[in-house]
Amino acid sequence: MRFNPLILIGAPGIGKSFWARRLAHHLGVPTTMIEETGEPASFSLAEAQRGWGGAPPGKLIQTILRERHAGPIVILDEIEKCGVVQSTQGSRRTLTDALLPHLEK
Questions:
Q1: Which of 50, 85, 86, 105 is most buried, judging by how many CB atoms fall within 10 Å of its CB?
Q2: CA nearest neighbour of 22 among 41, 8, 2, 42
C-alpha cells in the first residue's frame, strides 16, 4: 500500500495528530512526532545536515533505523510555528527545504 503525502488542516484540538497516530496503528507502521515549537523543524526532519558539523541524523532516519521500517508516518505538529535556522556562515534551512525532497515522487 502506498499513500501520497497528506496534510491535515483544521482548527487546534480537533484530532489531526490523533487521527494520524490511529492511521499508523491500523496500518501497522511506526510513527514519529516532530513538535515544531520545540526544535528547528528542518533539523529534526532532514537526514544528515550538510554544513552543520556533528549534526545527528534527523528523526525520520532515526525512526527508520530504530524500527527497521522504511515507511513510517511522520507527524509534524504545530507546523505554523516553525521558523528559519541560519548559521553564522549564512546557510539557511527552512522546513520547506527539508520537506520538498520527501514530497516529490
A1: 85
A2: 8
